[in-house]
Specification:
The protein is of the alpha+beta class and about 100 residues long. Helix content is about 15%, strand content about 20%. The radius of gyration is 13 Å and the shape is globular. The relative contact order is 0.25.
Length: about 100
């Protein structure tokens, strides 16, 4: 996690975090705690709190824009692993929460 990410968290309160159900710990090789997810479709789950408005991932701890952390960071989904600090999506989330783009 970049230093900017630990003081941001805007992505965790902006986007739905959906991914293949096989990434949950209910399945061999899965890591994401299943109890922190909701079923979306027969093949997709999402992190609880990201399927509704206002969005806030259940794994997010802290205050957005101040100091945040992910309580399942080493076990996070491929969606979270692929998200890049400074990307267009990142900056869109930051601006939405009154943070400067990076």
């Amino acid at each position: 996690m970049s230093d900017i990410c630990i003081s941001c968290g805007a992505c965790c309160v902006t986007f739905r975090v959906s991914f293949y159900w096989g990434e949950t710990d209910a399945y061999p090789g899965g890591t994401v705690p299943q109890h922190l997810t909701n079923q979306l479709t027969p093949h997709l789950v999402c992190m609880k709190g990201t399927e509704k408005n206002p969005v806030r991932c259940v794994a997010l701890e802290g205050e957005v824009g101040k100091s945040v952390g992910c309580k399942v960071y080493p076990l996070r989904s491929s969606t979270c692993r692929a998200f890049e600090a400074g990307s267009e999506e990142c900056n869109r989330a930051r601006v939405k929460h009154s943070l400067s783009p990076i």
